[in-house]
Every structure is written in C-alpha cells, then in structure tokens.
C-alpha cells in the first residue's frame, strides 16, 4: 500500500494524453489513491488533431471525422464521460476509386482492397483482363518465407500484381497513413495480411474465411456503417473528457523544454523558466520532440530519422443546386495513375447527413501524401482552385462555394517504415532501463487512429500505476 503522495505528469494534450490524464485521475478518485496528476499541453487547446468547426449549421472536421466502431476503446471512453448517447453511425453507400479520369465503384466484397468475393472482381471495369488474371495467381502462389518485417507494397504485389495494387489497394491503404506502401512496414500497419497468408496461403481465401459477412442487413433495418462519430462532431469527445479533468491540473500554452532524471524523480524544465518535479511521466507528444526534451539519451536518436508526412483538408460548402451532375455515393479515393492533385474526397453530406443543413452540400477533399507534399504549402485560394478543377472532372459544379475551410497538418502523419516495431521496442526497453517511470505513448508508436491512441493512453495508465505500486489497490 502506498501512503506517500505521488505526482504523475502527462506531457501532450492530444487524445492519447487526454485519455491517460482522465483515467489516472479517475483511478485516483475511485480508489482514493494518493496521486496528483498534471496534464501539460504546449498549444492553447486540448485534443491535438481532433478539431471540429460548427458554422452556419454545418459540422466540419479539420482532422479525423470518425473512428472504427469495432475498436471499442473510444466508445468505452465516451461511455465513461457520459456522451455515448450522442454517437452516430455513418450512412452506408457506394464508394469509388478514381483511375485514369474515371470513377469506378469499389468492387463488392473488397476488404481494404483485398477481394473476398470473386464475381465482383471478375465483372469490374477497374482492371484489365490481364490484371485480373495476375491477381488470380494468389490462389496458386505459395506462402512467403517467414520474416520479421517487410514493405507492404512488395508483399501485396507478389500476391496480386501491380495493377490491382495500384488501382485499388494502394489508394485505400496509403490513404490511411498518407504514406508510400513501398516504404511502409507490413507488420506495423497491416500485420493481419501476413498472419492470414502464413495460415491460409492464399490471401483471398484467408480474408474470406476471417472477415465477417457484412453484406447481411439487420432484420427490418438498414445496413449499419462501420464508423462512429458524435452528433456535434468528434471534438465533443475532447470537450467531454476535458470537462471531467480537475481544472487546476491542466496547463495549456506550456511547453516542456527539457526532462532531467534526478534520483527517484524527474525535473521538467518549462519554457517560462519554471521547473516541476514529478515521480512518473507519460510522454504523449509527437515523436520528433522527444529527442529535443531528452538530448542526453542517444537511444532516442532513431526518432529524429522517423519521417512524418504533411497533408491538408479542404472542406467546401455549397447550395445543393450548385451540383449539376451528382454522384450516388459517399466518396472516392484517387489512384496515383490519375492526373489529380486530390487524394480523396468525402461527400460528407451523404456519409454523415447530420453534418449538413437541408438544401446544402458539404465536400471534404484531401491533398498531400508521401513524395507529394509541396501542394500543402499553397495558399488557401490556390488549393480551392485546384480542388474545384479536380472535382469538375467528375461532377459539374456551377457555383463557387459558400465558404471554404483549409486545414494544414504539417509533419503530422508518422510514417511506420520497415523495422518500425523492432526500433520502437528497443527504444522502450532502453527507456525502461535508463528512465524507469517514463512511458512513451501516441500515434508515432502503435497506431494512429483515434482508438489506437486511446488504447495507448489506457496502457500508459496501467504502466504508471504498476510503477508506483498502486495497481493492486
């Protein structure tokens, strides 16, 4: 039993740090632990990339717009802070991939671009006969030789050939990470592909056996979407969690310049010259700033070499009559084979009807990916012009938008290159040895989706309580 009061400092107020601070304070209150928790955030607000704009009846996301419903930690957090009744599922509808200036429906039975039904792939015009024949080699090829890690792109090309990967799989998968699949770590991004191939040999047959049948509609109801958000935007979750924190425990606009180990505690030097002492630290910042705060430890140097991609989102609101040639669907992704600057477009008013007033249309487009990031630095007006030109290649838009909101995320998408898991494990082992009580968590390490970050925040709480000897209380 621990009777002496202990201090924990969470550095970084994105969803990972918010989660850690919330659950630490919750544990302290419910279990009456002698624990003082402080959350430090360098910017004036909490939530990181989760930002919602509510304007003229529109709900517009600057960052992520939802999370995967099957990943339960985000819903669990919503339940804990009392807003689960505000959750909304996405409307289901046809999604497309744009190849060579033309929109093709994504074939039915496609799971992240991998076919689980043969017929829709046979009849689609998305691939040539030769491309389809090459993809069928997946049924015949042996499983790959066991290895610790490999690049995602070559692994998939070996199974399906270039055409299927470039026209369908790559636009879907690289969109999640804004990355280059020929550099991305298979084991850090989609390890299930490797596991399934090793077990079933054929990736198509393995995905078919392991993927639930999502084509069945519930009795008497509409097929339910696989994503969730909140009625008034994803930032509702941030606001609800923040409202539960002890106000005096949150330091916004405060930057930690350096972290020093002093006997059994840590000394945090702040940008204003002040210093805080703490018994444990959860470091939930972007990976690039970790070596700056801990320059005396060489084992963090690999984080300096870890790349991040810059992206931008362009949200545009229109009157419904501005769209003269509409498309029946919820959005599309863009193949690199197409002469387009945008990488994807969501017809938000169709995917999330609650976000858009009646008689209005909301389109949200994305630009920037690995190897093509300079576009992010263009002016707002230039980006609007480029996006409208791209959209008018597939749909006729007769009016200028009522308003446009451009959001730039500079160096915001961590890239999990081959060997990522092994590198992170070495860093965490060295941290545990040299800096006991300091824990890394966040999108740079073990997944960058909202639930992945929340998972890491929860895990950090367990580690902190175990380190302080409070987990058994």
Automatic annotation (TrEMBL):
The entry's localization annotation reads:
Cytoplasm
> How is this protein named in the record?
Coproporphyrinogen III oxidase
Write out the catalysed reaction: coproporphyrinogen III + 3 O2 = coproporphyrin III + 3 H2O2
Give the record's family classification.
Answer: Belongs to the protoporphyrinogen/coproporphyrinogen oxidase family. Coproporphyrinogen III oxidase subfamily.
> Which Gene3D superfamilies does UniProt cross-reference here?
FAD/NAD(P)-binding domain, protoporphyrinogen ix oxidase, domain 3, Protoporphyrinogen oxidase, mitochondrial, domain 2
Which residue windows are coiled coil?
A: none
Q: Which organism is it from?
A: Bacillus smithii 7_3_47FAA
- GO cellular component terms, semicolon-separated: cytoplasm
Which one of the record's GO molecular function terms can you name?
oxygen-dependent protoporphyrinogen oxidase activity
Please give the pathway this protein is involved in.
Answer: Porphyrin-containing compound metabolism; protoheme biosynthesis
Q: What UniProt keywords apply to this chain's record, in alphabetical order?
A: Cytoplasm, FAD, Flavoprotein, Heme biosynthesis, Oxidoreductase
User: What does the record give as the function of this protein?
Assistant: Involved in coproporphyrin-dependent heme b biosynthesis. Catalyzes the oxidation of coproporphyrinogen III to coproporphyrin III.
Q: InterPro entries annotated for this entry?
A: Amino_oxidase (IPR002937), FAD/NAD-bd_sf (IPR036188), Protoporphyrinogen_oxidase (IPR004572), Zeta_carotene_desat/Oxidored (IPR050464)
Give any single GO term for biological process.
heme biosynthetic process
Question: What are the residue boundaries of the Amine oxidase domain, all occurrences included?
Answer: 15-465
Cofactor(s) for this protein?
A: FAD
A Pfam family annotated for this chain is Amino_oxidase
The Enzyme Commission number assigned here is 1.3.3.15
């Amino acid at each position: 039993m621990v009777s002496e009061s202990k201090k924990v400092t969470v550095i970084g107020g994105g969803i990972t740090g918010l989660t850690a601070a919330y659950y630490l304070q919750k544990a302290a209150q419910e279990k009456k632990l002698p624990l003082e928790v402080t959350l430090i955030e360098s910017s004036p607000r909490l939530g990181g990339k989760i930002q919602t704009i509510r304007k003229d009846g529109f709900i517009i996301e600057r960052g992520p717009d939802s999370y995967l419903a099957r990943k339960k930690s985000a819903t669990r957090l919503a339940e804990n802070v009392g807003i689960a009744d505000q959750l909304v599922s996405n409307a289901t509808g046809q999604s497309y991939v744009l190849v060579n200036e033309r929109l093709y429906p994504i074939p039915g039975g496609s799971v992240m671009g991998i076919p689980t039904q043969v017929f829709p792939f046979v009849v689609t015009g998305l691939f040539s006969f030769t491309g389809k024949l090459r993809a069928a080699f997946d049924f015949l090829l042996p499983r790959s030789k066991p290895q610790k890690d490999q690049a995602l792109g070559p692994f998939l090309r070996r199974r399906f050939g270039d055409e299927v990967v470039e026209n369908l799989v790559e636009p879907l998968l690289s969109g999640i990470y804004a990355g280059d699949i020929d550099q991305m770590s298979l084991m850090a991004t989609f390890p299930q592909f490797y596991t399934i191939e090793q077990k079933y040999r054929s990736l198509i047959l393995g995905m078919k056996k392991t993927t639930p049948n999502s084509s069945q509609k519930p009795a008497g109801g509409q097929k339910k979407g696989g994503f969730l958000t909140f009625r008034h935007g994803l930032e509702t979750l941030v606001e609800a969690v923040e409202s539960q924190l002890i106000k005096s425990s949150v330091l916004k606009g405060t930057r930690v310049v350096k972290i020093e180990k002093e006997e059994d505690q840590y000394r945090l030097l702040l940008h204003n010259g002040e210093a805080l002492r703490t018994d444990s630290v959860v470091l939930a910042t972007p990976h690039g700033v970790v070596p700056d705060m801990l320059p005396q430890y060489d084992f963090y140097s690999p984080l300096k070499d870890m790349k991040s991609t810059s992206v931008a989102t362009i949200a545009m609101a229109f009157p419904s009559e501005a769209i003269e040639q509409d498309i029946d669907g919820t959005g599309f992704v863009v193949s690199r084979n197409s002469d387009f600057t945008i990488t994807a477009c969501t017809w938000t008013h169709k995917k999330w009807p609650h976000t858009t007033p009646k008689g209005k249309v909301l389109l949200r487009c994305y630009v920037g990916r690995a190897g093509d990031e300079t576009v992010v630095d263009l002016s707002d007006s230039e980006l609007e012009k480029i996006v409208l030109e791209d959209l008018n290649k597939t749909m006729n838009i007769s009016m200028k938008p009522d308003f446009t909101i451009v959001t730039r995320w500079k160096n915001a998408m961590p890239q999990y290159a081959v060997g990522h898991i092994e590198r992170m494990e070495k860093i965490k082992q060295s941290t545990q040895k040299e800096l006991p009580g300091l824990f890394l968590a966040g999108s740079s390490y073990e997944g960058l989706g909202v639930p992945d970050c929340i998972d890491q925040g929860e895990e950090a709480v367990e580690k902190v309580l175990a380190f302080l000897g409070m987990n058994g209380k």
